[in-house]
Amino acid sequence: MSGVRARNIWLILVGYIAWSVLFVGLYALQALGCAAGWHQVTVGPTDLHRILLVAAYFGGLLALAGVLLVQARMPTEGYPAPAPFLRRAGVLATLAALVSSALIFAPVLAVSACR
Question: Which one of 4, 8, 16, 89 has the largest count of C-beta atoms within 10 Å of its C-beta?
Answer without folding.
Answer: 8
